[in-house]
């Protein structure tokens, strides 16, 4: 499924099977989870995609062959490919363990063709071996919803009372990790989203309400997964002095002005950008121990436009996943 121009629907096309270069893997894709970032790319809110582009950055598949110099994987190995596709490896950010901030970073399904296809190539250094116990369809959402969610959760420190704004793919994974860590989770959804609220309760939220409500207890921290800038003042109002609000999305609508007293009291407002390979290694080690269980809504590859429309309309429960290889079902 190919994006020719921002603002246009994806088109089903026959393309040559890509050839892996040095250090790259050729992967036969089994499944690729959809992500709100894909919507931001299609809608032109992320402005520098490679065009034409094969989107998709939560790829699960098996190695077919590889280019020269590959030592980490062999044909037949199952691998996961995340958003972070490459970095320069030598800038100050890369050297300081912040490769997610590298100015030369390239991202899967944005600068590099991704997983809305039968085959993909990826740099072996940025691929992950996937834990046993997760089928291909269940593993795919771990590669962005899980990884970005985990990085966001880490940014909340030891917060015991945690608010989550926007109960989608990332939230339904991270609430499981947070509960496993012994935290209380307060879930905020769009007003009237009773199905999402019930889903949050089933996963262990101690309180569920609309995003414009205040929780019954003051929060230690909050994570905003929804790309809605108006949630920033709402979350700041809900956290205690010294609390943290983490904006987890790669794109957010403009944040409205708000009175300084919402930030005062040493509250912290911060963003999360991309992920590091360390995030992936840590999260994929933790996920089987929780154990994380991903709820997936399946679509055939050729229904990618329908899947993205359902995501935009709030009609996906858990994570939407494109089934590329029917043998994965």
Structure in words:
By secondary structure, the chain is an alpha/beta fold. It has two domains: 24-143 and 275-328, Quinone Oxidoreductase, Chain A, domain 1, CATH 3.90.180; 147-271, Rossmann fold. The chain has nine helices and 15 strands. It has helices spanning 36-42, 92-95, 136-139, 145-154, 169-180, 194-202, 231-238, 277-286, 304-312; strands spanning 24-33, 59-66, 78-81, 84-86, 106-107, 119-123, 128-129, 161-165, 184-189, 207-210, 219-224, 239-247, 268-271, 296-300, 319-323. The strands form three sheets. Strands 1, 2, 3, 6, 7, 14 and 15 form a seven-stranded mixed beta sheet that branches. Strands 10-9-8-11-12-13 form a six-stranded parallel beta sheet, sandwiched between helices. The chain has a two-stranded antiparallel ribbon with strand order 4-5. The model has no long low-confidence stretch (mean pLDDT 97). Residues 7-322 form the Enoyl reductase (ER) domain.
Spell out the blueprint of helices and strands:
Elements lengths: L23 E10 L2 H7 L16 E8 L11 E4 L2 E3 L5 H4 L10 E2 L11 E5 L4 E2 L6 H4 L5 H10 L6 E5 L3 H12 L3 E6 L4 H9 L4 E4 L8 E6 L6 H8 E9 L20 E4 L5 H10 L9 E5 L3 H9 L6 E5 L6
Parallel strand pairs: 8-9, 8-11, 9-10, 11-12, 12-13, 14-15
Antiparallel strand pairs: 1-2, 1-6, 1-15, 2-3, 3-7, 4-5
Number of strands: 15
The global form is globular
CATH architectural group of the largest domain: Alpha-Beta Complex
Q: How would a textbook summarize the main sheet?
A: 7 strands, mixed
């Amino acid at each position: 499924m190919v994006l020719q121009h921002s603002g246009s629907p994806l088109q089903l096309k026959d393309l040559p099977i890509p050839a892996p270069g040095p250090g790259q893997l050729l992967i036969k894709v089994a499944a690729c989870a959809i992500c709100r970032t894909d919507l931001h790319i299609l809608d032109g809110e992320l402005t520098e995609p490679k065009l034409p582009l094969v989107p998709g950055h939560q790829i699960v598949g098996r190695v077919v062959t590889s280019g020269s110099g590959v030592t980490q994987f062999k044909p037949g190995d199952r691998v996961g490919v995340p958003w972070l596709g490459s970095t320069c490896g030598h800038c100050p950010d890369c050297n300081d363990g912040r490769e997610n901030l590298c100015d030369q970073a390239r991202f899967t399904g944005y600068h590099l063709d991704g997983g809305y296809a039968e085959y993909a190539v990826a740099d072996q250094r940025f691929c992950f071996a996937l834990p046993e116990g997760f089928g291909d369809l269940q593993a795919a959402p771990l590669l962005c919803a899980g990884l970005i969610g985990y990085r966001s959760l880490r940014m909340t420190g030891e917060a015991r009372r945690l608010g989550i704004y926007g109960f989608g793919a990332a939230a339904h994974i991270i609430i499981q990790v947070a509960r496993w860590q012994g935290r209380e989770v307060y879930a905020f959804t769009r007003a009237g989203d009773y199905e999402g609220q019930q889903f949050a309760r089933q996963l262990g939220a101690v309180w569920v309400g609309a995003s414009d409500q205040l929780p019954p207890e003051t929060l230690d921290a909050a994570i905003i997964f929804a790309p809605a800038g108006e949630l920033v003042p709402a979350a700041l109002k809900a956290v205690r002095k010294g609390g943290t609000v983490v904006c987890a999305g790669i794109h957010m609508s403009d944040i409205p002005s708000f009175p300084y007293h919402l930030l005062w009291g040493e509250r912290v407002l911060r963003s999360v950008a991309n992920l590091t390979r360390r995030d992936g290694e840590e999260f994929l080690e933790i996920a089987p121990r929780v154990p994380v269980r991903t709820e997936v809504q399946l679509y055939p590859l050729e229904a990618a436009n329908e899947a993205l429309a359902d995501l935009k309309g709030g009609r996906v429960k858990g994570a939407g996943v494109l089934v590329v290889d029917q043998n994965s079902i």
